[in-house]
Amino acid sequence: MNQVLNPATEETIAELPEATVEEADRAVAAAKAAFPAWRAVSPPDRGRLLRRLATLVEETSEELAQLETSNVGKPISDSRAEATMVADVFHFYAGAVDKHHGETIPVSGGIDMTFREPLGVVGLITPWNFPMNIASWKLGPSLACGNTVVLKPAELTPLSAIRLGELVLEAGIPEGVVNVVVGPGRTVGQRLVEHRDVAKIGFTGSTEIGRGVMQAAAGTIKRVTLELGGKSANVVFADADLERAAASAPSAAFGNAGQDCCARSRILVERSAYDRFLDLLVEAAGGLRVGDPRDESTEMGPLISAEHRERVSSYVNGNVVFSGNVPNGSGFWFPPMLVEASNDDRVAREEVFGPVAAVIPFEGEEEAVRLANDTPYGLSGSIWTEDGARALRVARAIDSGVLSVNSNTSVRVSTPFGGFKQSGFGRELGLHALDGYSEVKNLYIATG
Ligand code: TXE
Questions:
Q1: Mutational pocket test of ligand 1: of 125, 132, 215, 313, the residue with most ligand atoms within 8 Å of the beta carbon
Q2: 229-273, pLDDT tens digit by residue?
Q3: Which of 39, 107, 313, 378 lies at a CB distance of 3.0 to 4.6 Å from 146, suitable for a disulfide?
């Protein structure tokens, strides 16, 4: 039995049987059987079903948000925003179904055209940090392209995926099109990656497991999209609006208790503004409200598990310039922390996945770019400056899939999201995601 906990109280909120490899096989078989009929549904009708799903998510959004908060420990205001995003994602892909199409290409002797074909059965493997959001980012384009799905949520946070699976059926999407299998990664997840009837794996999780997924996928030349870890830089130049940059830096590093692949966990600050910025940053971090995730004003909740807290605490050494307060008693609490560091320190090199951010000085634009790029990751990042030309120069020079200027946001429904380097490859969200869930077929017709 899988005991599902509320990380803010350590109470068991659900007990679920763990799926076996045989059940994973049955889910794949169901998805395979459902595929011919699902791919044959006309694009406007597929769009209509996705739109109905989006509307159902809207109608169920409070329930979904409460479920996510109790299972992940994230503040209710965040969960509500995430539920809204799930609906928006399904609305977006409902509208995209008939806008992702082929082309005709001028050739001699005939006519050449391309088609976008679905892949077949896709395996979607999701992590515990944004369970329902990340599930929707993969479900939306998978279904829009005409694939059928086996979704395997993380063991710690399966509840919203199960509820989404129910809503899929309620929306009228036929049985077998979406199958949710709750089971361990090393058995059920691994089985999906190796299964010969699974055409593609859409994976979000750690770089370490992602590496194994890529290796295991080689056996069947499976397509993979990997959205992996990050160690994103928040680059603050001396000419920036320091107040704004400092006010936004704590939530960029400590949002979701730092369990965010886009966390700006390396705060790079130009030396000439370093002392002033650090004062502002510490003051802003002190204002962060850590506590009961059900409270509307809470900005940071607990970590996901005791084991994870142990791992996060191993990163704390060096010069801690700020450590916040956390509630007493049960719950996997860990205080937000700012540590002065060099980019060579472990806290600046590895993904902590907790509320511990490194503050690192730099000297000038060249060093800023060098430090920002001195990491195996390349997922996200920010540049704060009032100089527009510099913002563009630095943005082009940083090897990262997603960047923002004078903002710490990373994810929007309509824009591509994904990594460079060891943060993975393939893009989620926007129209780009559709490329990852379809195959291009080229057809030539001789007319001579
Ligand atoms: O990730 P895992 P976890 C990072 C972060 C975190 C660490 C561990 O550093 O501390 O990963 O988190 C499934 N074959 N990120 O344990 O282990 C697993 O069941 C197939 C970064 O959640 O990578 C789960 O469903 N699947 C991150 C999913 O993979 C397997 C998000 C992710 O698990 C498998 C989360 C296998 N052999 C964690 N083994 C981000 N980039 O957002 C496990 N899984």
A1: 125
A2: 999 999 999 999 999 999 999 999 999 999 999 999 999 999 999
A3: 39
